[in-house]
UniProtKB/TrEMBL annotation:
Residues 71-223 form the RecA family profile domain. It comes from Candidatus Shapirobacteria bacterium CG2_30_35_20. Belongs to the RecA family. RadA subfamily. The keyword Nucleotide-binding applies. InterPro entries: AAA+_ATPase (IPR003593), DNA_repair_RadA (IPR004504), KaiC-like_dom (IPR014774), P-loop_NTPase (IPR027417), RecA_ATP-bd (IPR020588), Ribosomal_Su5_D2-typ_SF (IPR020568), Ribsml_uS5_D2-typ_fold_subgr (IPR014721), Rubredoxin_2 (IPR041166). Keywords: ATP-binding, DNA damage, DNA repair, DNA-binding, Hydrolase, Metal-binding, Nucleotide-binding, Stress response, Zinc, Zinc-finger. This is DNA repair protein RadA. DNA-dependent ATPase involved in processing of recombination intermediates, plays a role in repairing DNA breaks. Stimulates the branch migration of RecA-mediated strand transfer reactions, allowing the 3' invading strand to extend heteroduplex DNA faster. Binds ssDNA in the presence of ADP but not other nucleotides, has ATPase activity that is stimulated by ssDNA and various branched DNA structures, but inhibited by SSB. Does not have RecA's homology-searching function. It comes from the Bacteria. GO terms for cellular component: cytosol.
Length: 444
């Protein structure tokens, strides 16, 4: 018998831990979700605990060789959007949690990652045949693509130790199907598949394995309806990097975001487009047609991290017959949209109190960047006037509107202006310099 030192109550819904049991989780308010778990020395080995006293050693940074920290430890994913999100690339021995809703394309992107670099794909959900079909469908090379069908974390450990540095990348799909303990019954000493404690312990073992063997491990994690990673919050603390893969399932656009990164910035995004051939990096979003100016449409360039991206804003301004006119904003912040409607009413003299206003960002992405204010304003004004925005370098090509709109209708330069302008010019577009939204009248 292991000596049980302590027990802890873990919420199966949100993963928070409590010292005492209660019928309702104090954090997420779900009922009957708290489960008791033993914490023993064996289950949670802490670095140093097992060493004898004489061996404790303090490391001098000045004596640690620098090569351990140089770029040799970072290698490219061979997928440029992926590299950007990770910082420079994959860090050896690191653990990346790759989270996303069901069916969003997690397995597809990680299959592409292994296909391009070689590696081991641990299939907890699918069979090797299914993965083989996917690899062929995506046109990837099956050479250097190994599959381990298992739900056992111990087996992953054995394979990695046996193969000793053959793999640079290991994908575990998914953490919810991994188990420490007996996989025959589907329950280990720590509870069944997907339970908070299993997820936590499996992740803990995988982190240890990555550090020990130097392979980079990508762990797939499903997210709950609320958008959290199913499993304990602790999971996010244990891994080096947390990525979220998201997008509208109806649309084909996918955004890869980083919410934690021990090796790089967290404000980068990668944009992908889903097709039969898999996910490919996207430079500019859904610009329908030939680039000619259309009624109710304006082009802008948004910045996400250091990435600039051309997007189209569409607006529909129609006479309202309701006592309260409708305001629908999709892809932009509701309050920001309302504010811009008010400024348009005041400064451009549009009688929007008797008009319904709909604004959307094409491609189903969300922009959180005041640099697109001017384009939102331009799209609304164009729809109201029923005329396209017409100033362009080449005939009829829509100009790019960039700028933040103040309450007084002034237009201000925004962060990354030069980069945005350069991107627009590279796409053969003109960026008019505008100081006040009143000048939109000259463009229509
Ligand atoms: N045989 C196929 N042909 C074309 N598209 C496919 C095919 N199989 C899958 N897809 C597309 O790939 C999408 C994502 O699949 P993928 O398995 O990568 O998602 P996932 O995030 O791993 O899902 P899950 O949470 O179920 O594991 C599917 O929704 C579908 O649009
Ligand atoms: Mg999958």
């Amino acid at each position: 018998m292991k000596k049980i030192l302590e027990t802890v109550f873990v919420c199966n819904n949100c993963g928070n831990e409590f010292a005492k049991w209660s019928g309702q989780c104090p954090t997420c308010k779900s009922w009957n979700a708290l489960q008791e778990f033993p914490i023993s020395n064996n289950q949670f080995p802490i670095k140093g605990k097992k060493r004898s006293l004489g061996k404790i050693e303090v490391k001098k940074l000045s004596e640690i060789k620098e090569e351990n920290n140089t770029n040799q430890n970072v290698f490219s994913t061979q997928i440029s959007e992926f590299d950007r999100v990770l910082g420079k690339g994959i860090v050896r021995g690191s653990v990346v949690l790759f989270a996303g809703e069901p069916g969003i394309g997690k397995s597809t992107l990680l299959t592409q990652l292994v296909g391009k670099n070689g590696g081991l794909y641990v299939a907890g959900e699918e069979s090797a045949e299914q993965i083989n079909l996917r690899v062929r469908r995506l046109g990837l090379s099956p050479e250097r693509f190994d599959v381990l069908e298992t739900n056992s974390v111990e087996e992953i450990g054995q394979v990695l130790e046996r193969t000793n540095n053959v793999y640079k990348i290991v994908v575990v799909d998914s953490i919810q199907t991994m188990l420490v303990g007996s996989t025959v019954t589907g329950t280990g000493t720590l509870g069944s598949f997907g339970s908070v404690n299993q997820i936590r312990e499996s992740t803990f073992r995988l982190v240890e394995l990555a550090k020990k063997t130097g392979v980079a491990i990508f762990i797939v994690g499903h997210v709950t309806k609320e958008g959290d990673i199913a499993g304990p919050k602790l999971l996010e603390h244990m891994v080096d990097t947390v990525l979220y893969f998201e997008g509208e399932k109806k649309g084909d656009l996918r955004i890869l975001r980083v919410s934690k990164n021990r090796f790089g910035p967290t404000d980068e995004v990668g944009v992908f487009q889903m097709s039969d051939a898999g996910l490919s990096g996207v430079r500019n979003l859904n610009l329908s047609g030939s680039g000619e100016s259309k009624v109710g449409s304006a082009i802008t360039i948004v910045m996400e991290g250091t990435r600039s991206m051309m997007v189209e804003i569409q607006a529909l301004v129609t006479e309202s017959f309701a006592s309260m006119p409708t305001r629908v904003f999709s892809g932009i912040d509701n309050n920001r949209g309302r504010l811009l409607v008010a400024v348009a009413q005041k400064v451009l003299g549009m009688p929007l109190w008797k008009y319904d206003v709909y604004v959307s960002v094409t491609g189903g992405i969300r922009v959180d960047d005041t640099g697109c204010d001017l384009a939102i304003m331009g799209a609304m004004y164009s729809s109201f006037k029923e005329k396209p925005i017409k100033m362009g370098g080449a005939q009829g090509i829509a100009p790019v509107l960039i700028g933040e709109v103040s309450l007084l209708g002034e237009v201000k330069k925004v962060r990354g202006w030069e980069k945005r302008e350069k991107e627009a010019k590279a796409m053969g577009r003109v960026v008019p310099i505008i100081y006040s939204i009143g000048e939109l009248k000259n463009l229509i």
